[in-house]
Design a protein that fits this description.
With 296 residues, the protein is an alpha+beta fold. 24% of the residues lie in helices and 36% in strands. The protein has an 8-stranded mixed beta sheet with strand order 3-1-2-4-8-7-6-5, covered by helices on one side. A 5-stranded mixed beta barrel has the order 9-10-17-13-12. Strands 14-16-15 form a 3-stranded antiparallel beta sheet. Helix 5 packs across helix 7. The longest helix has 19 residues. It starts with a strand and ends with a helix.
Length: 296
């Protein structure tokens, strides 16, 4: 068996995850999360022709070309690989969709964002592909911040404060960025065929503890503007930005406003400051954006 820690929780797993931080052995009943290989019930498999996933308070599941997996009671993830499955992809699906579903059952939200920390506080950096999220995250790290998460951070409200929990000490880099930094691609973990990305180890400071969120930055690439800008998000707009940056937002669709996520997102949004960072697409404004972010 393998034992890890992620998002401040202990994991008991029969599947190895090279990117996760190892933990002391723990029994299955004492672990926060249990990941195990077993046969998925036929009643779920047979539904593949009508839909590929389903969310519930106690039972959620997902089916794709790599794996069937079942998430139960905010603790258990059962997976069954398809014949000839790429195990790297399978691990990515379990750590992404699987853990996001599991935490949703616990009332904790997986936010699609990078997270960095400094002086005991976290900054979340959200944005769609191409918005400049990786560039801004790298600028934070160069300025002395520590990495908490590169793609997904777990967020929940504790004692009236929004708190972010770290994932694992790896960054996702596209092929060109990895080559530019001098990495040997054959030594990296290839994780994303669609976006052609690799997992790159992070060797700086990595804390396992949750951090109160100082603010959340939502990057938007906009070809209609000529100058970058930073604008505070207020009122109900904060709720919408939180909901629309859920890791599961594309699968949830309109359900993202439902009882499994809506009240939690409202609570999270009201407990932290949020800003839009607008970036023009036709110019290199990375340094100007960094100066604006520093000013807030």
């Amino acid at each position: 068996m393998h034992y890890y820690i992620i998002y401040g929780k202990t994991v008991f797993s029969d599947l190895e995850f090279p990117q996760l931080i190892k933990a002391e052995p723990v029994s299955e009943d004492k672990a926060d999360i249990v990941i195990r290989h077993a046969v998925i019930p036929q009643e779920i498999k047979s539904r593949e022709t009508e839909r590929k996933y389903e969310f519930g308070e106690n039972i959620s599941w997902l089916i794709n070309r790599t794996v069937w997996f079942l998430v139960e009671k905010g603790k258990y993830i059962t997976y069954e690989p398809r014949e000839g499955a790429n195990m790297g992809y399978l691990r990515t699906y379990l750590l992404g969709y699987g853990l996001a579903m599991l935490h949703m059952q616990r009332g904790e939200m997986a936010i699609h964002c990078s997270a960095v920390h400094c002086d005991g506080e976290a900054v979340l950096i959200a944005g769609e592909s191409g918005s400049g999220k990786s560039t801004l995250t790298t600028r934070f790290l160069e300025a002395g911040y520590g990495l908490m998460a590169d793609d997904v951070s777990l967020v929940k409200v504790q004692d009236g404060k929004a708190v972010a929990y770290p994932a694992f000490p790896y960054q996702k880099l596209c092929r060109d960025a990895a080559l530019k930094r001098g990495y040997r691609l054959e030594e990296l973990l290839y994780i994303d065929e669609e976006k052609d990305k690799f997992m790159v180890p992070y060797f700086g400071e990595f804390s396992l503890e949750g951090k109160p969120i100082r603010r959340m930055l939502c990057l938007i690439a906009d070809n209609r503007i000529k100058e970058p800008y930073v604008k505070a998000i207020t009122g109900i707009e904060k709720f919408h930005f939180c909901v629309n940056n859920l890791f599961l937002r594309k699968l949830l669709q309109q359900e993202r406003y439902g009882m499994l996520t809506g009240p939690q997102c409202l609570e999270i949004a009201s407990a932290m400051d949020m800003y839009i960072v607008g970036r023009p697409t036709q110019a290199d404004t990375a340094e100007a954006i960094w100066q604006m972010v520093e000013n807030i």
